[in-house]
Amino acid sequence: MPSQNSKQTEQRDLFRGALEMMVLGSLQREPMHGYALAQHIKQRSNHLLQVEEGSLYPALQRLLRDGLLKAAWEISASNRKVRTYRITPAGKKHLERERSSFERMLEGITLVLSPAGSEGAV
Amino acid sequence: MNWLKQLARRRRHFSDLSQEIKQHLAEKTDALMAEGMSRAQAERAAQREFGNVTRIEEDGREAWMWPLLENFLFDLRYALRILRRSPGFSLIAIATMALGVGATTAIYSVVSATLLHPLPYPSPSELVRVEANLPGVGAHDIGISVPELRDLQKSGTFQYVSLSFFGTNVFTSSAQPLRIPSKSVSPSYFAVLGVNAQLGHTFDPHDTTPGFLPEVVISDGLWKSAFGGDPHILGKTMRLDNDLYHVAGVMPASFRDQGQTSKERSTDLWAAAGFSGPPAPPPVRATRLPFETIARLQPGLSPAAAQERVDALVATLTKQYPGDYPSQGGWTIHLTPLAETLVGNVRPSLILLFCAVGLVLLISCVNVANLLLARASARGREMAVRQALGAARMRLIRQLLTESLLLFVLGGISGVAVLFCARKFLLRFIPESLPRLNDISISWGVLAFALVVSVAAGTIFGLAPAWLTSRLAVTATLKQEGRGTNGSRRRTGLRHVLVIGELALSLVLMIAAGLLLRSFWDLYKVQLGFNPTRVVTIQTSLPNPNDPKTDIYRTATQEGVMLHEVQRRMRTIPGVEETAVSDLAALPLGHGQNERRMTPMLREGEKAQSNQPPLIDALIVSPEYFHLLGITLLRGRLFAEQDLETTPLIAVINQSAARTYWPGQNPVGARVHLLGRLGRARPDWTTIVGVITDARTESLADASIPQMYVDIYQRPFKFLTFYLRGQVDPAAISAQVHTQLQAVDAELPVFSAETLNDVLSSSLSVRRFSMVMVALFAAAALLLAGLGIYGIISFLVHERSREIAIRLALGAPRRKILKMVLRQGLTLAGAGAGVGLVGALIVARLMARLLYGVSPYDLSTFAGVTAVLTAVAIAASYVPALRAMRLDPISALHAE
Are the Cβ atoms of B63 and A1 closer than 8 angstroms? Predict the structure, then answer.
């Protein structure tokens, strides 16, 4: 089989909810439109995360549907008509919850992977 | 209206989404151009970094959809388009499934009415039939006495116990004497069944009148036909067999009585009696009434637990009344679920039919799955393109599954629609003797069954083709234009397996049909031992009033005068050459096996209790009966005119009786005491005066039932069958006989005129029905299997056309190509026949009980059917083989 399929999945799913978390986090700082959001995530992650720009949009739609974001058409600084997203109070609460659970998970993974915990590891 | 608003808002979300994606791409392009790219370069780069716009937009939209439902609707629309695009394929697939589901649903509707819901009464599982036996003397179903009935009623095991006796009453207050199928029952009868009257009331179950109650309950049918649905019917009087009754209640239209025969199930009138006073004999333990006993168990009591309690009761009674229950008899009372007694004898046939039709359904499914697989090769390119464009495999499988489900469900709907239109026509094929014939219908339950079957079949048989269709190497397929991919080899393998399975299943069905056909034929062609041609039979019943003093046909002499006169008049009907008369039981093959009541007899020199009284099938006939039916006398004499009520009782036995009960002796001159009903009327010795040949008048399948014939002029009987031999018109004879009969007694009814050949043929009706159905199913299966093998061989020829063309171009003789293709067909047929023969051996063993005169492993049937299957396989392969042979190598190779 060609590798096409597997590459796609690797790129799209960091893990469930990761992209949403980053979107919420970025929008908590300041409201942004899609393009700006994509650039923001790329720069902030030092281009470490290979996020397909387009994949932001389904995530944005889901957050919008769940009432975690609001969207409105505005005129940007560069004089473009853009759809700007804002985080809602529900979104903030959701982000808080997600962030703490993510941190716990990361801590757990780190503990398992740390050399002290794994006997025989090089 | 919430979802409507949501739908409107969704539209805006969708347009916002595509607009903002366009904006995103524009902004990105501008940014890249600012970095120095050309517009074209920048646009391409922006696209690349963004990803698949269409898919992303679709993913984004999904957030606002009800994905399961909407995807399904989308798939459905697409599936409909696909089906319309290849109408030939769709039509064949739908017709195949219509056949499978339609036939299965039809048989299910029969099974549902008879086997699944045999008793249309509340809590049917509480109903049991009570049967007393004397296993010690081999006597079965000896009847129950009134004291025993009371003991059962008091035992606490039953809610109600009821006797019933089916007969006919002659209703004489209407313009014409009307013969009404009626039942004499205990007052608790309707309480046992748990059904109430629609008008008036049924009998009081606690009534203690010893004789007949002065009231009757009538059926809705009789109420409408004889009384025009008179709303003031209650309290009106009816004169029945010279006794006056008034109508107490009318049963609901939906009510149908229970019973072994269709006549009994169409009872129109119920009279209640305590059976402990006249006309019944005095209620002592020794007098067992030869009636049917049914009972309703206490709620929650299982039949097994009830049987235990009854056993304990029997033990107590046996101890308490040793004189009435001698230990040699071993008196027992046996409870059988009532449903079991009604459908027990048709169950094997119906189960066989249901299995047969199940196989047809299976073959239809396999055939359609095969078609789907064949189409999978044609759609390889479509699948590859859709996968290359980013369709997930699960999504494709779901799409393909929707398509097959649509095919199967459409097939199911068409099948049921055809069934619904043809139901009246089809019902005519169902033998009348089938219980609950009138309740067979296409109910909601039957429709639900059809739907579940279609959906289940669509899922099961759509899944594998969907799986294999969606599984392919995208690049390879696209390069090869969808031909010769590795997925296709697996598909072809599966198709081989499916065709082999189809052939095997149809072989099983054909062998089952073959064996049934052989049985039927053997029965049909059996040496009857009597001659049924040119004989019309017609029935009447004499009044049976409750007070014997008012009975004008009380004695054999009284009845004899009438019988002689009636027959003399019948012989004046043009065309009639001979006449005879007998009781109902003597009508050859005229009744079900359950109606036969064997009479116990004692041979001279035997003690009643020291020996088993042998049982004999005793029939009451007039002297002319033997000559009319062509039954030959072997030794001794037949009845003569001088044998009368006043002369010593005589009897004639058949060879089987002589062989069984007087082995190695001459039975002529031997004397017997007949017990039971016949013995009560005339308890003196009966002398055997003659031996006749065995005739299969009781059962076509059994030639050796011991029979004894007694003289109707010595032992009168109320329910009579007249026989007329000659050149008569069965359609007109009823009216002609009626005129002659009424000239003698205006109150005698005439009914059931039929030729003896018709009686004979209807005695084979259940057998004929199951044979014809299984044969039809087998033919359908063979047709489908033939189509299947044709399909796969055509496909193989098509796939190998390049190879064949090369072979031909290299000089291979065309005959060799033909042989090569035919060999493939034969290999499949051989494999199918091998598997099928193993299956058929198992099935044949299971259906051995339904066979007659043919071994379940009958070599000629097995060999013949295998030969037919092979011939069909060769014929089906021959067409594509010819096509392969005539292949033009040049054009075939150019086409590549």
Answer: no
**pLDDT at position B724, please?**
92
Average pLDDT on B277-303 reads: 81
Q: Which of B412-416, B842-846, B885-889 has the lowest mean pLDDT?
A: B885-889
Residue whose C-alpha is closest to residue B268's, from B339, B180, B202, B207: B180
Does some domain include residue B700? yes
Nearest to B23 among A60, A61, A82 (CB): A82
Based on the domain organization, do B740 and B778 belong to the same domain? no
Which of chain A's residues have a Cβ under 8 Å away from the Cβ of B60?
A: 57-58, 60-61
Average of pLDDT values for B768-788?
A: 86
pLDDT score of A116: 62
Contact B374, B57 (CB under 8 A): no
Tell me phi and psi for residue B87, to 5 degrees: -65, -35
Establish if B60 touches chain A: CB-CB under 8 angstroms: yes
Look over chain B and give the mean of its residue pLDDT values, rounded to a whole number: 83
- Match domain A4-113 to its CATH number in 2.60.120.10, 1.10.10.10, 1.10.580.10, 2.30.40.10: 1.10.10.10
Domain ranges of chain A: 4-113
Contacts of B278 (CB under 8 A, 6+ apart): B210, B211, B546, B547, B548
B112 domain-assigned = no
Of A4, A54, A83, the CB nearest to B56: A54
Confirm whether B819 is domain-assigned.
yes
Number of domains in chain B: 4
- Is residue B51 less than 8 Å (CB to CB) from chain A? yes
Helix/strand/coil for B246? strand
Compute the distance between CA of residue A95 and CA of residue B556 in angstroms, rounded to an integer: 106
Is the model's pTM score more than 0.80? no
The DSSP code for B847 is: T
Contact between A57 and B474 using a beta-carbon 8 Å cutoff = no
For B735-750, write each residue's pLDDT tens digit: 888 888 888 887 787 7
B38 has pLDDT over 70: yes
B23:A34 CB<8 A: yes
The reported pLDDT for the residue numbered B839 is 92
Residue B537 lies in a domain: no
- Tell me how far CA of residue B44 lies from CA of B33, B37, B39, B58, in angstroms: 11, 10, 9, 21
Measured between alpha carbons, how far apart are the two ends of chain B, in Å? Answer: 58
Q: Are residues B360 and B445 in the same domain?
A: yes
